[in-house]
Amino acid sequence: xxxxxxxKALDSWQISAQYWDKYRVLIAQMFTPLTSGLxxxxxxxxxxxxxxxxxxxxxxxxxxxxxxxxxxxVTYTDPVAGMVETAQVEASRRGLTNLHFxxxxxxxxxxxxxxxxxxVGRLSAMFFVDPVKAVREAxxxxxxxxxxxxxxxxxxxxxxxxxxxxxxxxRFVQVPxxxxxxxxxxxxxxxxxxxxxxEKADAKSVIERExxxxxxxxISFEQxxxxxxxxxxxxxxxxxxxxxxxLPTVKxxxxxxxxxxxxxxxMNFPAQALxxxxxxxxxxAN
Length: 286
Ligand SMILES: C[S@@+](CC[C@H](N)C(=O)[O-])C[C@H]1O[C@@H](n2cnc3c(N)ncnc32)[C@H](O)[C@@H]1O
Hints:
Elements: H1 3-22, H2 24-30, H3 32-41, E1 49-53, H4 61-68, E2 73-78, H5 81-93, E3 99-103, E4 118-122, H6 131-140, E5 147-153, H7 160-172, H8 193-200, E6 204-217, H9 221-231, H10 233-241, H11 246-258, E7 262-263, E8 266-279
Parallel strand pairs: 1-2, 1-4, 2-3, 4-5
Antiparallel strand pairs: 5-8, 6-8, 7-8
Helix pairs in contact: 1-5, 7-11, 9-10
S-adenosylmethionine binds at residues 13, 27, 31, 53-57, 59, 78-80, 83, 105-106, 122-124, 127-129.
């Protein structure tokens, strides 16, 4: 990733921040199983010091802050100012006092060695500039034997929440062939790929768990369309390339294809994520 590409990606997340804030209630609802999976895999409990990497509009930090309670703490990080700001406003609104905020990228964490018990990232690892460096950083700042856990999306074919829109859009907009290692939603969808990154970063006992769940919310297709096309930088970019008269055609084709996921006022998409976890090696005493 060149510095220009990195800047472009962060600028896009900066625009996305307002929409991730706008839809925070729905996001919390739709992706709760991902947070529960992370909490379980990283063995998060009362009194722990947790690092959240790429916390976006605040999850999983906000949920974990209640789990660790007043004797524990959560440090939220994200490289995008707008994301940090909205997460911080929400934490204050909820009166959470064990939650701390730092604006930083995953591959350069401004924390001392072994400061945290565990580190987690929900749907952020696929956007890390240098994933091996980022996982090494996560391992550096956690205690020996502590867990790192990242949840990422499984294959596009198992995630119609995304493909229902992008497959149609890609028939209308020329998409240049993408580098499979470029930061994007499905970068770590192939089983074993993120496992390889954790192993390369020297995590031990690395395991991958497939999480099949449902993305559910009480919204109509119209609301889904608005949410998807606002929240995703990639979709915003593709929509800008459509001729004005193409947009209604694309939207109608998406609506036709996605009809079966909207029944009696409720959206319900099958979904698949991968949770990849590992532990920090203990130092051997001489
Ligand atoms: C899909 S959002 C997920 C946000 C949140 N964790 C959630 O699940 O709702 C991805 C997040 O990764 C962040 N991100 C992008 N590049 C990053 C990097 N190099 N290091 C850490 N986070 C990054 C973005 O700013 C964004 O907030």
